[in-house]
Amino acid sequence: MELPLVSIIIPTYNRAALISETLDSLVSQTYSNWECIIVDDLSSDNTLQVVSEYCEKDGRFRVYKRPEENKKGPSSCRNFGLEKANGLFIQFLDSDDFLAPSKLEQSVHEINSSHRTGKEICISNFQMFILTAADATAPYCHLHSGLFTFENILYKWEELFTIPIHCGFFSVELFQDFRFPEELQAKEDWIMWITLSKNNAIVSFIDEPLALYRKNPESITMKSDALADQIKVCHYLKNILTESQFDKLLFKIISNYHKTNMELKLKIEAMKKSYGYKLERLIQKGFKRLGLLN
């Protein structure tokens, strides 16, 4: 029996130094019937050259440039990749992350072990790393099969857990009516998980670290403008949630920001009462009296 084709979609931008390791993790897969669609977001380094070498050596790799008329960003690139995909299953992967060698094989087996409906998602656990997969450490959150409900994904996201996008393995039918919101530069994966769970996706879980997530301080998911991103996301979610769901979510977001601000205020007050802070202020006053500080 012919193995079902898996489409792996990788958006990339200026990852010449890292993407080879990502692509090598695909070459090492124990499951062979896959295609990899790499969508370059008009990189300014030699990412295209690096990727093109893989395409020449292995016909399962294909690379495209994001059309200039399309919006910039991972959402646009993933949507372009979905249009090019031929597989029965979709595996998303960022261009600085890895898949464990058996990720595709175990995911296909998990979904095919029951009657397939076209709404399946297989989620695996993950580990984190900075430089190499050999240095992988425990994940930043504890994933388990009881987490993946619509309510938890909507109301507990970031507070209790998140799911790195490459932990997921998706039936292609789930994307017939969904595309990533291209106006968002962050949290677009959360929108995906909300939408698919709201549409009653059937989720199974493999409690093994089959995805490896790179801790990258420069990545967009690590940037600090969280409030602006949250406002944009809320504007988008208002159109897909019921009024009561949206009101509950908005209340929770406001409560969380209030709690965070109060905790920060208490930390600042405690710092001001500390001996080190008082000493620093005393030194500053002395320098000002001596005319050494403005």
TrEMBL record:
Pfam families linked: Glycos_transf_2
Ranges for domain Glycosyltransferase 2-like: 7-175
GO molecular function: hexosyltransferase activity
CDD domains (alphabetical): Glyco_tranf_GTA_type
InterPro entries from the UniProt entry: Glyco_trans_2-like (IPR001173), Nucleotide-diphossugar_trans (IPR029044)
Protein name: Glycosyltransferase 2-like domain-containing protein
Species in which this protein is naturally found: Flavobacterium kingsejongi
Organism placement in taxonomy: Bacteria, Pseudomonadati, Bacteroidota, Flavobacteriia, Flavobacteriales
